[in-house]
Amino acid sequence: MKHNSYLYASMTKIRYCRVVYVLQVVVNVIVVKYMLLVFMLCPFLYSCTVINESSDFTDEGTFTSGIEGPATDDSGNIYAVNFDTEGTIGKVTPNGITSIFLELPNGSIGNGIRFGSKGDMYIADYKNHNVLKVDMKTKVIDVFAHDSSANQPNDIAIGNNNVIYASDPNWSNNTGNLWKVTKEKGFELLEGNMGTTNGIAMSPDGEKLYVNESVQRKVWVYDINERGGLSNKKLFFSFNKYGLDGMRCDETGNLYICRYEKGTVVVLSKEGDLLKEFRLKGKKPTNITFSNDFKLFYVTVADRGNIEVVRNTLQAM
């Protein structure tokens, strides 16, 4: 009996050791697989990391809380609306020196700014339902187009042949329109009863138009035909939280979007993949423009009343 008991105890101990060994092997395999997965995903995880990389390009409070519409001229100067007081356009040199560029007439207040192919400045005047045109040499301001039925022309993008596209939100009922604007025909409605249309951007080849809806947090993309019409509307990207504001494409077609109240600029590839998110000092970025070499981008920030600048690390990737 003692021999059988000893044999039984020995066999039980062997079985126990085998179970422990198998469990150790399984745990090691799981750990190794997890580490391999993290290693493989590291580049992607890093590319989507939120990093605080902005600094002040202008002093806080240089512009009002209505700061918007930055645009860059051929010399690298940055222009934005509401410098010191409402209804003005401010100018900032590449070295950060600020000055008033002009005052808009008749109570007009600007929002989005863009430069046309001939160097003229175009301004969305939401107060008087205009798109204004500014001769940069003489500073003469003309009404390029007017339509009293527009809610409030907000952001603009300029395509081939100086065709202008304008977002037109109605903040009171969370709807909006999309307009085509030309000198010959004025405002032509491309699509009505959308969400709160806000940010708008043109692809560098002039073949795609991106439009976002702030409250609905959706970004749409359209094909642009030879006459400037739109077709083949598709949902490009949808966010779960925070509002959307101004947008701009870089020279490779990546789309940069201001995340209002989140305090970031998110970058999407032209295929719709999330590439990176840049953290700003302020929480309410309204719009964005680039330096002429695309190595920097400048963001207007409503809650700080200034322009922040970010070194575009995507250019090195």
Alpha-carbon distance between the two ends: 76 Å
Count the DSSP helices: 1
Biggest sheet, spatial arrangement of strands? 1-22-21-20-19
Average pLDDT, rounded to a whole number, is 88
What is the radius of gyration computed over CA atoms, rounded to a whole number of angstroms? 27 Å
Task: Please give the share of residues in helix.
Answer: 10-25%
Strand and helix map with partners:
Elements (H helix, E strand, L loop, with lengths): L1 H46 L2 E3 L1 E3 L6 E10 L5 E6 L4 E5 L5 E6 L6 E6 L5 E5 L4 E5 L6 E6 L9 E3 L5 E7 L4 E8 L3 E9 L2 E6 L5 E6 L4 E7 L5 E9 L4 E7 L5 E6 L3 E5 L5 E6 L5 E6 L5 E6 L4 E6 L6
Parallel strand pairs: 1-22
Antiparallel strand pairs: 2-25, 3-4, 4-5, 5-6, 7-8, 8-9, 9-10, 11-12, 12-13, 13-14, 15-16, 16-17, 17-18, 19-20, 20-21, 21-22, 23-24, 24-25
Would you write up a description of this structure?
The chain has 317 residues and is mainly beta. It is built from 1 helix and 25 strands. A 5-stranded mixed sheet has the order 1-22-21-20-19. The protein has a 4-stranded antiparallel sheet with strand order 2-25-24-23, with no helix packed on it. A 4-stranded antiparallel sheet has the order 3-4-5-6, with no helix packed on it. It is globular.
What structural keywords apply?
317 residues, mainly beta, four-stranded antiparallel beta sheet, disordered N terminus
Briefly say what this structure is:
By secondary structure, the protein is mostly beta strands.
